[in-house]
Every structure is written in C-alpha cells, then in structure tokens.
Model the fold of this input.
Amino acid sequence: MSTNLDIQYNRQTHRLCSKANDLCQLSGSLDRPLSVILQITRNCHFNCEFCSEKELMPDPTLDELKIYAQHLRGVPRVFLSGGEPLTRKDFREIVEIFSGNHIIGLPTNAVASDENIEIIKRNNISVNIGLDGPRAITSRVRGDYDFIMAGIRSFIKNDIDFSLTAVVLRSTVDSVLYTCQIADALGAKKMKFVLPVPKGNALQLDKNEFLTDEEATELCGRIAEEKHKYGWKTTYTFTIWNQFTNGYSILVYPNGKTYAWPALDEKDKVLLLGDLHIDSIKEIWNRFPFKHNHVQKYLGHGIEVG
Done:
C-alpha cells in the first residue's frame, strides 16, 4: 500500500514505513486499514478461560465470504480467525477466496492435519499459535498442551514459520520467562504476550487475574533483560490495553457485523462500524474512530517490545 506520503507496508515484517512524521497526517492519508480480523467460525475444540468470543453464531457461507472478500479489496492483511478456523471443513475453499489479494494470517491452536499443512505451505500463510506456558498452565487455561505441541512439531517438520501468543494472567505470570525460553527453543519468530479483555469467558475470571498496566510494563522490562542475558533470538512483544491500543483492530464477526476492537469504553468491548455484507472497507474505515491507534500498531508503537 502506498500514498502520496510515500507510505509502504512491509509484507515481511508486517510494519508500516513512512517518511511522514505527523501521525495525524499519516493515518489521515490511508483510505482503508492495514489489517482486518475476520471470524470465519465461532466453533472451537478448546474452551479457553479468557476467550472473549463465546457467543455461538452460524458460520458464514462461502458465498457470504466471497462478498466479504470483495468488500475487503485492498486491505493488505486478513486474519482468518475464530473460534478455531481450522475446524472448518471447507478451509481450503476459504483460503482460495482470500489468498490472491491478501496476506493471510491464521490464529490457531495448531490443528496440524496433513491437509492443513499443505494449504498453509502452498499459500504462505502466517501462523500464530496459542501457547500460554508449560504443560500444566496451558492445559488449565487454554486446552490440551500435548495437542498443541504435536501441531507445533508438525509445523517445524514441514518448515512452516510460526509465532506464539500467550494471554498473561496473574496466576500464570511466574511462567512468562519460562514461556520465553520455550518460544526460543522452538524457533518461534515472535512470542506475543497479551492481557485478557474482560468479555466472554474472561468475565468469569477473578478480578485479581488482571495485571495492572504498571505490572505488565515491569514484566516487559524483565523479558527484555532476560532476552539480553540469555541471547534469545525470538522477538517478544507485550500488548497492554490502554489509550494507545484502544480499538486498534477492525474485527468482523461471522455474521458480517464489523467492529472496532477492543473498544474499552463499550459494554461489550466492541464498537459497531458497519456490515461487510453491504459496506465496503473504505466506508467502514471512514467511520473508524481509532485510526491513530491502528497505524501506531504498524509503526511498532503502542506495544511494549522486549
């Protein structure tokens, strides 16, 4: 993507490069977002303690997804999300709809069947796997640790690059540095730590499970120190929900309703922007009130890096 401000989206680092110094000028020059999260299902074989999307919805049909794809033309990166997107038996057909016009990101619990691996490799899909720590912790807060690790080993065997994501709770914080070591030992390109959003299952969490911004920032500093000390090669990031990350993603539900997420001041943590059945992404972007935060994400700001 480029504009008269010489903006470039780097397809390797998924970062934005620009000669513009003014964030208002930069975000105002874009006519669509740099990425969109599209939920192609709400079905999932896990039941994460922190899952924000527990309300079941019918899967969008292939015909609906073709409409969504048409309205998302020009968006560099589309995350085919869930639920667990690899539970869809027509995942190959879904990828065919989006692969020609977008970089595809895939958040998954590592459902690494032979067919899924072939689809991922053929389409150079960017894989992001949920892994919240050692066996006891991951199995408690997310799902079957051994299932996830078996999937990761299959990705490694088939030379598929991957990143990892862990949701950090107070009851899991002591394992974060160990999780960093796991990520480095596995060869993950990136290890993303994120705080839970109080929605869905996360509303049932004890309030004490939510770290403060100050605690999360301190933890990120410890990660940076340990990375330097031990020579970890993995890149580590930490997303804290505050005024700089508020509403920074555009999220499409299976029914096409499109939101800013997470909209921290909204009751359900989402702010309705439109419906991808009828609205183009340009129209939705025009209504999007968090352009600065969205762009800051792709400039590498707003997220602590260790």
